[in-house]
Amino acid sequence: MALRELSSLEKFLGLKKPNKYSTQGDKKVPVLQSNNGPALVGLVTIACHLVKEAKRPELLGDSAESRAVVQQWLEHRVTKLDGCTKEDVKTVLKDFNLYLQDKVYLAGNQFTLADIFMYYGIHSLIVELAIQEKEQYMNVTRWFDHIQHYPSIRHHLPPVAVLRNRIYTGRHH
Amino acid sequence: MALNFTINTSNPPLGALLAAEHVKGSVQVSVEEGKDTQLHVSDAIQFNDANSISRYLARVAPSLGLYGANMMEQTEVDHWLEFSARRLCGQPGLTVALGELDKALSLRTFLVGHAITLADLSVWAALKGHKEWPNQGKSFSHVNRWFSFLSSQVPFSSVGNKYTTKKA
Hints:
The complex is a heterodimer.
Chain A: H1 2-13, E1 21-24, E2 29-32, E3 40-41, H2 43-53, H3 64-81, H4 89-100, H5 113-128, H6 131-136, H7 138-148
Antiparallel strand pairs in A: 1-2, 2-3
Helix pairs in contact in A: 1-2, 3-5, 4-7, 5-7
Chain B: E1 2-8, H1 14-23, E2 28-34, E3 38-40, E4 46-47, H2 50-60, H3 71-88, H4 94-105, H5 118-128, H6 133-136, H7 141-151, H8 156-167
Parallel strand pairs in B: 1-2
Antiparallel strand pairs in B: 1-3, 3-4
Helix pairs in contact in B: 1-2, 1-5, 1-8, 3-5, 4-7
């Protein structure tokens, strides 16, 4: 999974030459052997490296604050979201929903790497949601639909059908 | 084709100015300050209404998609243009209109489709120029998020700063 995400990121960044990755350990942690240095290990580490290689530093945040927020969500992705159990799903979605209430992107008004990797990571949870649940977590749904339509992000993932108007408006969340 | 856009500086048509900013890479538009708002296309054709000007500018630069990507979206854009002119421009009943707008924006980043359209420009401009909007903002979280998102983007920030301070 992680390897497909990295290759989708390469396409998004417009990197001409696809890298070859290997994996390490039971959890299949991705490894990139660079030509002129030590091997890079870990999804987030490699992703940040690719962003720098493509000279798109703004994707890591353009202020000290937004850089911290981006790293926080990248870490959240690999520590909380990956390997989150069935019981955790509701809490994860509830917290994420609350966070996105007043934001278009994770770092506020600016699209960053955090949006890309949270989208890749949360895709399998969103696919499972019923229409009513998607509406319950409407801030997540809105953000998700926006990111899946963001130019050249989706690549390896199937589109998720999302309603653009609420139908369960009687309930308040 | 060079277009001549004159704006009334005491009541600047923000929506049309935003449309002009968006299309300036594809169409030649010169903006001048004057007494009346008018888009001079030729000696035979002029537009005076802000929405007509926006519509015309969006149509002469179709590649930008400001009028939506298909017929359905085009109709939605028309809906919001009328909504902004009738329900938001200094009319009473702003709270009800904001309630509807808030509901529409709960699952949308942009009003129509997945990118900026005239709908966003025109509704944003109507709120920006509305005296009561700043007090009402807090009660409508979706409208508020959408409004500050657009306000942070170029050309919204530049047009907003340039023409609303002048008005005050």
